[in-house]
């Protein structure tokens, strides 16, 4: 499952550089996560790094992008092979 950033985001800029896939970018009002690039850090780390550094806990799982750990690993391999 990809992650998402909610409107509690305070634009503190700490999550973007932590994403190993470059899935996080500034949106119109808050940061956004590209579900096509988000692997929940599967393949890189044991836990999503953006969730670890977020001071306001505004990065939950995105219920509209459900993926298994195997699917996330497959996406990781596709992203890192390019």
UniProtKB/TrEMBL annotation:
<feature type="domain" description="4Fe-4S ferredoxin-type">
    <location>
        <begin position="1"/>
        <end position="29"/>
    </location>
</feature>
<keyword id="KW-0677">Repeat</keyword>
<dbReference type="GO" id="GO:0005737">
    <property type="term" value="C:cytoplasm"/>
</dbReference>
<keyword id="KW-0411">Iron-sulfur</keyword>
<keyword id="KW-0004">4Fe-4S</keyword>
<dbReference type="InterPro" id="IPR047927">
    <property type="entry name" value="YfhL-like"/>
</dbReference>
<protein>
    <submittedName>
        <fullName>Ferredoxin</fullName>
    </submittedName>
</protein>
<dbReference type="InterPro" id="IPR017900">
    <property type="entry name" value="4Fe4S_Fe_S_CS"/>
</dbReference>
<dbReference type="Pfam" id="PF12838">
    <property type="entry name" value="Fer4_7"/>
</dbReference>
<dbReference type="InterPro" id="IPR017896">
    <property type="entry name" value="4Fe4S_Fe-S-bd"/>
</dbReference>
<dbReference type="GO" id="GO:0046872">
    <property type="term" value="F:metal ion binding"/>
</dbReference>
<keyword id="KW-0249">Electron transport</keyword>
<dbReference type="InterPro" id="IPR050157">
    <property type="entry name" value="PSI_iron-sulfur_center"/>
</dbReference>
<keyword id="KW-0408">Iron</keyword>
<keyword id="KW-0479">Metal-binding</keyword>
<feature type="domain" description="4Fe-4S ferredoxin-type">
    <location>
        <begin position="31"/>
        <end position="64"/>
    </location>
</feature>
<keyword id="KW-0813">Transport</keyword>
<dbReference type="GO" id="GO:0051539">
    <property type="term" value="F:4 iron, 4 sulfur cluster binding"/>
</dbReference>
